[in-house]
Here is the input.
Amino acid sequence: MSFFDLLNHLVNFALPAVSLGVMVPLLSRLIWRKTPVKRPLKSQMMVTSLACLAALFAGLVIFSTDGKMATYGAMVTVAAVCQWWYQGWRV
Here is the structure.
């Protein structure tokens, strides 16, 4: 495998996590405009993206393959929990 093939695989592995990590904080601020924001948008995006990447990597380790729906479900759950945590643990 060449370097560019490896780079392509790594980018395609991380792209769903990073895109979800960017979209969830943006959409939450759009939906809940009147809710006071406690932390900057960049930190929300970074923490959510890293948590989603960790969920994808854990799914890769557990299932020993990429692209399982359970892994993507875990990634969405992790993104939701991160956003809930950033909003102040309201129920």
Remarks:
- The chain has one domain: 3-32+39-86.
- Residues 3-32+39-86 form one domain.
- The two ends are 48 Å apart (CA to CA).
- Residues 3-31 form the longest helix (29 residues).
